[in-house]
Design brief:
The complex is a heterodimer of chains A (about 475) and B (about 220). Chain A has about 475 residues and is of the alpha/beta class. Helix content of chain A is about 45%, strand content about 15%. Chain A folds into 2 domains: about 55 residues, no CATH class; about 300 residues, TIM Barrel (Alpha-Beta Barrel), CATH 3.20.20.480. The model of chain A has no long low-confidence stretch (mean pLDDT about 95). Chain B is built from 9 helices and 5 strands. The longest helix of chain B is centred in the middle third of the chain and has 24 residues. The chains are: A alpha/beta (about 475), B alpha/beta (about 220). The interface between A and B is medium-sized, with 14 and 17 residues.
Chain lengths: ~475, ~220
């Protein structure tokens, strides 16, 4: 069965990008603002200039790191039973993470409260085609020193799905491990991880102290991490797509070496958030179609290395939820499934990855469902070619009444929740609502009627004690209600 | 099956109707007669109720139109078995009304008309479906034979919609126009068209068609 798939690089091109990256990582090197990581790299044979903090990593070390990397990453649901596998050509859709702004249901863009994050978690818990929640918002009603871990707590309480998160602090990952242990037990932090950490390199060719620390901590705990190079074509990366890809790949490989030599077998995903730096407005754009080309190339490189992939593909540069926001996201979704990107990240996101809208999230869920259906392709067998049925019904007959229709229609089609398929008259009688209005009402209904599976009371109590203990370190006694 | 009581049997009959399982409905309907259960009760509480429940579910988006059509067919399979028994007992089934429906002469489009018929059945009407390519004379005979409350005519082409006018004229000439309400529908038709040809009503889709028929027959 032919599955619809795309490749944007041929085999030689993939190899060339890989080899150019190896040249750059060994000759130019990568700047790593982290003493311990530099020492580690030095100890394994890298050429390290400690004063400039630049490590030049020879090819054989990169090859060894690639060998140590698992080809499949499992992410569990909070209950430790269901899981998803980042592997092969599977695509899972992920809510965009760490937005500083929230577009509420009245379309007002404002700083979010913890309650808003809880709402995003509840809605995501319900949406059928959005598989991973994220610590989507940075709430304004909690001190910034605690915001990263507080988000995790809010989301763990209100959503049962795996969580894409990240730390803004050096102690972020160890504290997150405490929160995870409260839910699944210490022994399951690495065995049944329900969180994956985003760790970003800083283009060009740099790793910050914070993200290097987070990456090494994740490796030590066995918590999955996705490494996110963020090449900006014509800004912090070459304007040429191939050049941006080579640079991003080099940064990824540097991170991979650090992780795999911190702890062999660390679960790593090759992720990314490429952007186009628009020379007209000096903006960093996520919705350019070239971003999708880079994303697809990233996935190809990840497959070449045998490592799961991810990319910020469900994003848009639109300022409101409109045609542009849906079009850019739909391109991203289709390319994600066609390129076999395992984590298609960014559902619900607007404004240069800085705003989450629940209305966009609901629409993106229909987009994701449509793309996933397309990727499944056409199922051809004796039953589906339906020769027997066509013969039975004959010329001028009606398939509507046939058992085959009832058996297969539902199986063959993705039924969108929001895209309107009614008659014009039915639509008018329903109030002539546009997509945004339908999405808003859908969200309101979910928020009113859906209750995510609550944590067992004892676990909830322990979890709440853990977050209170973490808060106390900063002298924070009062936490928002969620 | 041996210890099946009436309530169980009617529940199973309703379930089989909802599942659109004509064979099972026929089998259980025979059982109804065998066990001496009131066939009218079986029709009203199991067959009709099952289809009506499904119709409500379609409107709320829970089931598909093909499910309704299958259920309506299953209901008919049961009716054909129970009807004679009902008549034997000197009773009759109470419907909301009787509708004769068909696609006009020269037009072989089945789907729209069949959906309207199934939804009318799912709403509690008795529907006599004359099929497709129905000449005016056949509509006239149906009025004489079945004495329906409403005639429904479907046309899917601009060329065949003219037959709706022709059929109404023929009904008038036969002196039967005041005996029935006439409704028309189909993609090229409009409310203006319906008025122009002297129909009593027009509906743009199947749900509206059911509402229209209820309105014409003063059913709330």
């Amino acid at each position: 069965m032919a599955k619809p798939r795309i490749e944007v690089l041929d085999k030689e091109e993939v190899l060339e990008i890989h080899e150019r990256s190896l040249n750059i990582i060994s000759r130019v090197g990568v700047k790593i603002e982290h003493e311990e990581a530099l020492k580690l790299l030095y100890s394994i044979g890298a050429n390290v200039d400690f004063s400039k903090r630049i490590a030049k990593i020879p090819e054989y070390i990169v090859r060894e790191a690639l060998k140590r990397t698992p080809s499949c990453v499992r992410l569990y649901h909070r209950d430790g039973k269901q899981y998803i596998e980042l592997y092969g050509w599977n695509t899972y859709f992920v809510v965009g993470s760490a937005a500083y702004y929230y577009m509420d249901l009245r379309n007002e863009v404002r700083r979010p409260l913890s309650k808003d994050l809880a709402d995003v978690a509840k809605v995501t818990d319900y949406l059928p085609n959005t598989h991973l929640m994220s610590t989507a918002l940075v709430p304004a009603d909690i001190s910034e020193v605690l915001a990263d871990r507080w988000r995790m707590y809010v989301v763990m309480k209100n959503c049962s799905k795996p969580i894409d998160t990240g730390a803004f602090t050096m102690e972020g990952v160890p504290d997150a491990a405490k929160l995870m242990a409260a839910v699944v037990g210490e022994e399951n932090i690495s065995k049944k991880p329900f969180m994956i950490f985003a760790v970003c390199s800083s283009p060009p060719l740099k790793w910050s102290a914070l993200t290097t620390q987070n990456l090494m901590d994740c490796a030590r705990y066995g918590i999955p991490a996705h490494i996110i190079p963020m090449p900006q074509t014509g800004g912090t990366a070459p304007a040429t797509l191939a050049g941006a890809i080579v640079q991003a790949n080099t940064e990824f490989l540097a991170g991979l070496v650090i992780a795999q030599f911190t702890k062999p077998g660390a679960p790593i995903v090759y992720s990314g958030s490429p952007t186009v730096f628009d020379q007209r407005f000096a903006t960093s754009c996520t919705g350019y179609i070239e971003v999708s080309l880079i994303s697809a190339a990233t996935s190809q490189l990840a497959k070449f290395y045998g490592i799961p992939s991810g990319c910020y593909t469900m994003v848009s540069d639109a300022k409101i939820v409109d045609t542009q926001s849906s079009l850019e996201t739909a391109f991203g979704a289709m390319i994600s499934v066609l390129a076999g990107i395992n984590m298609a990240i960014g559902s619900g996101m607007l404004l240069e990855e800085n705003c989450i809208s629940l209305i966009k999230l609901a629409i993106d869920d229909d987009i994701a469902g449509s793309a996933l259906r397309f990727a499944k392709g056409i199922h051809v067998d004796i039953e589906t070619v339906a020769e027997r049925v066509i013969e039975e019904i004959g010329p001028g007959g009606l398939f509507l009444k046939h058992r085959h229709t009832r058996d297969w229609w539902r199986k063959e089609h993705f039924i969108p929740r929001l895209f309107d398929k009614r008659t014009t008259d039915m639509w008018r009688k329903g109030g002539s609502k546009d997509l945004n209005t339908a999405a808003r009402e859908y969200i309101e209904k979910i928020l009113k009627e859906h209750t995510p599976e609550p944590l067992p009371p004892d676990i909830e109590k322990t979890l709440s004690e853990v977050i209170k203990g973490i808060a106390k370190k900063y002298g924070i006694e009062k936490l928002p209600e969620v | 099956m041996v210890n099946l009581n009436k309530e169980d049997l009617l529940n199973r009959l309703k379930e089989a109707t909802i599942n659109g399982d004509s064979d099972e409905v026929a089998r259980l309907s025979k059982k109804v007669i065998e066990l001496g259960i009131d066939p009218l009760e079986a029709v009203e509480k199991a067959l009709v109720k099952g289809v009506i429940e499904l119709g409500d579910k379609w409107i709320s988006g829970e089931v598909f139109i093909s499910d309704i059509i299958a259920a309506a067919d299953a209901m008919k399979a049961g009716l054909s078995i129970l009807k004679s028994e009902i008549i034997k007992r000197g009773k009759s089934i109470k419907y909301l009304g009787r509708i004769v429906i068909g696609t006009v002469e020269g037009d072989i489009h089945d789907i729209g008309k069949s959906i309207v018929a199934a939804l009318l059945e799912a709403s509690g009407f008795e529907v006599i479906d004359l099929g497709i390519d129905v000449p005016p004379q056949k509509f006239i005979e149906a009025i004489r034979q079945y004495n329906p409350d409403v005639i429904g005519m479907s046309a899917l082409m601009t060329t065949t919609m003219l037959k709706q006018r022709e059929t109404i004229e023929a009904i008038k000439q036969a002196g039967l126009r005041d005996r029935v309400k006439i409704v028309v529908g189909g993609a090229p038709t409009t409310e203006e068209w319906a008025g122009e040809i002297g129909a009593d009503g027009w509906a743009p889709d199947a749900i509206s068609a059911v509402e229209l028929v209820k309105r014409l027959l003063n059913i709330v």
